[in-house]
Design goal:
Elements (H helix, E strand, L loop, with lengths): L19 E11 L4 E7 L7 E9 L5 E7 L4 E7 L1 E8 L4 E7 L8 E11 H18 L2 H9 L14 H7 L3 H9 L14 H7 L4 H9 L14 H8 L2 H10 L14 H8 L5 H5 L16 H8 L2 H9 L8 H13 L3 H8 L3 H13 L4 H11 L5 H13 L3 H13 L2 H9 L7 E2 L2 E2 H7 L3 H9 L30 H8 L2 H8 L6 H13 L2 H9 L14 H7 L3 H9 L14 H7 L3 H10 L2 H9 L8
Helix pairs in contact: 1-2, 1-3, 3-4, 3-5, 5-6, 5-7, 6-8, 7-8, 7-9, 9-11, 11-12, 11-15, 13-14, 15-16, 15-17, 15-18, 16-19, 18-19, 18-20, 20-21, 20-22, 21-23, 22-23, 22-24, 24-25, 24-26, 25-27, 26-27, 26-28, 27-29, 28-29
Length: about 625
């Protein structure tokens, strides 16, 4: 394992010498025939400095101005009414600035001046700051100018970033090329041990930038303080192209582990980046990564984070295939290396499917839709007896309150294997979640086999399913919860005849058959009603208010269903407990055409009975 590279040495100013200070700024009057001098000591700047001056004569008279060193070396000699400039001074301990008015006879001069001394180090610091800023934001010409003036290419800012790092972070490809051509080190690291290659992966820099660094001999296996190589970071951020380049440059990166025992595959799975899985799975498959220091495999990382697409990809890649003897031994050795001891080694060689099922079920308890999807995906994995046993163990280790919601979801999806395994783990067949029972979820989506399975396991079919179908009161619907739709009503409304048959079962003459017929009539499901009648459901079945199928169909205005029921022997003269006929119910509900159709289709005696009755049928 490569050691984390040492941080690049910072080039920073000494803190005991000021970079810039104002030596003097004032106004003076120079009488005629005299001179005025300003001495400037330079003992604090033995390595050289810059003298920055600015002055003007307020009246506008010309003045002889000179600057010389303590050794008599003349640096400036001019006659002007104002002046400003910068002089570089070296090998001097003192300067003297002189304004000469000795040649004047009468006129005094008034001179306002300002003198500053800037150390060479201060100038370099200014240029260094410009280089760092230009490396991040441009322009490229300023970067080149600063380098040409001698600014170190390995200068660093307060975060330890070199110009090359800043260019990589801001994806300045041309700047990075220039800096590399000037000798910028690809091995330099910031305060967290990140090299330019780490930072390129972190920012998901274009592949061309990563390729540029690799061509400059950047070390792909260099580690930061967290023990992460660039491939770890690329996998975590989802940089598929960068990761491909890194693995090609250093194939060992795929198996490298960070300080927490994570391979790049662990990190990609945790972050949910399915796009990078192909590059990581192709060499050795999903099991080769083993477990990290916490005992998690890439699959369990993806399950815990709720990444359904990644879980599916890992399963397809063989994440739950039985390990070979060599893989099992390697997993135990890795667990021991991570400090887990015998217990962790046992986990490493143990039941990965059960572990993942437990984790997904626990997440599903918090109403996380992705965790429910993952749990059903895992529960449907493998048809072997051992797979089923592992799923059941995992479910029994999960919070019991999570099983009901999973069963309802599985029944709604018609996932027979997950339903079976949930029931084997003691999930109640009467489980309810989201206003639906498992039975109503299966019935609503027409999963007749699932309905039959739940019925065999004792799912309760409550009384009063047809109550209220045509406006009446009553109890709770078949397989329903308070505020929810019953199983029979859901199946009838959706038109799932096989599911209705499964709910009725063998009880054609009982409550189940009656409820199905009345609901089908109220919903206008003519074909379903006929199938139920042909299977043995009594044609004169009635609800708690004495209303039969004909009443429910007529009160809902389903003329075709009414005519079909009449042909099957339903009596148009039958009255409910309030003395109301089916035709009367149709008129009261505003369906006069349905009542007329009943009169035309009814036998003459029944039609006369209807017309002679006191019901509103007379008004038709």
């Amino acid at each position: 394992m490569a050691a984390a590279p040492a941080a690049a040495p910072a080039v920073a100013p000494s803190t005991d010498i000021p970079d810039t200070f104002t030596f003097s700024a004032t106004e003076c009057i120079i009488e005629a025939g005299s001179t005025y001098e300003v001495p400037v000591p330079l003992t604090d700047h033995p390595d050289g400095c810059f003298l920055i001056y600015k002055w003007n004569e307020k009246v506008g008279g010309a003045t002889h101005f000179t600057v010389h060193t303590d050794a008599g070396r003349m640096l400036l000699d001019e006659v002007n009414h104002q002046s400003n400039g910068r002089l570089h001074v070296s090998q001097a301990s003192r300067l003297t600035l002189r304004w000469d008015n000795s040649s004047a006879w009468l006129n005094a001069l008034t001179v306002a001046y300002e003198v500053k001394v800037v150390s060479d180090r201060g100038v370099q610091n200014t240029l260094r700051a410009r280089l760092l800023h230009a490396s991040r934001a441009g322009p490229l010409s300023l970067v080149e100018q600063c380098l040409d003036r001698g600014v170190p290419v390995e200068s660093v800012d307060d975060s330890g970033y070199t110009p090359l790092m800043l260019a990589v972070l801001s994806q300045q490809r041309a700047t990075a090329e220039l800096l590399l051509s000037r000798g910028a080190a690809t091995s330099a690291s910031d305060r967290r041990g990140n090299t330019p290659l780490h930072l390129a992966s972190l920012q998901r820099a274009p592949a061309v930038v990563v390729q540029l660094l690799l061509e400059a001999k950047a070390e792909a296996l260099a580690r930061n303080e967290e023990g992460m190589a660039a491939a770890h970071i690329a996998a975590f951020t989802g940089g598929a192209e960068a990761l491909g380049l890194l693995l090609a440059a250093s194939p060992g990166s795929a198996d490298s582990r960070d300080a927490h025992g994570n391979t790049p595959l662990h990190l990609a799975a945790s972050a949910g980046h399915a796009s990078v899985l192909a590059a990581l799975l192709e060499p050795a498959g999903a099991r080769a990564a083993g477990r990290n220091a916490r005992g998690d495999s890439p699959l369990s990382c993806a399950v815990g984070a709720g990444h359904t697409e990644v879980v599916a990809a890992l399963l397809a890649a063989g994440a739950l295939d039985p390990p070979t003897e060599a893989e099992a031994a390697a997993a135990q050795a890795q667990a021991m290396a991570n400090g887990g001891g015998g217990e962790a080694a046992a986990v490493a060689a143990g039941d990965e499917l059960a572990r993942c099922v437990t984790r997904a079920a626990a997440g599903a308890r918090r109403e996380a839709a992705t965790h429910r999807e993952i749990a059903l995906l895992l529960l449907g994995f493998g048809e072997a007896e051992a797979d089923g046993a592992a799923c059941v163990r995992g479910l029994r280790a999960a919070p019991p309150t999570s099983l009901g919601g999973l069963l309802v979801a599985a029944c709604g999806a018609g996932a027979k294997l997950p339903v079976l395994r949930l029931l084997q783990a003691d999930a109640s067949p009467d489980s309810a979640a989201g206003g639906r029972t498992a039975l109503s979820a299966a019935a609503e989506h027409g999963h007749a086999a699932t309905v039959s399975l739940l019925m065999r396991r004792g799912a309760v079919v409550a009384e009063g399913a047809a109550a209220g179908a045509a406006g009446g009161g009553g109890g709770t619907a078949v397989g329903s919860v308070a505020g929810g739709e019953g199983a029979m009503a859901a199946a009838v409304r959706a038109g799932h005849t096989p599911a209705v048959r499964a709910l009725v079962g063998a009880h054609h003459e009982g409550r189940e058959g009656r409820d199905a017929l009345l609901l089908a009539a109220a919903a206008g499901r003519t074909g379903m009603a006929l199938v139920l009648l042909e299977s043995g459901v009594p044609v004169d079945a009635r609800d708690e208010r004495g209303r039969g199928a004909l009443h429910h169909a007529a009160a809902s205005g389903h003329t075709m269903t009414v005519l079909a029921l009449l042909r099957k022997g339903c009596s148009p003269a039958a009255l409910d407990d309030d003395g109301t006929s089916a035709a009367h119910a149709a008129v009261l509900a505003g369906y006069k055409e349905t009542a007329l159709a009943m009169l035309r289709a009814a036998p003459p005696d029944d039609a006369l009975a209807l017309l002679s009755s006191s019901s509103p049928a007379k008004s038709v």
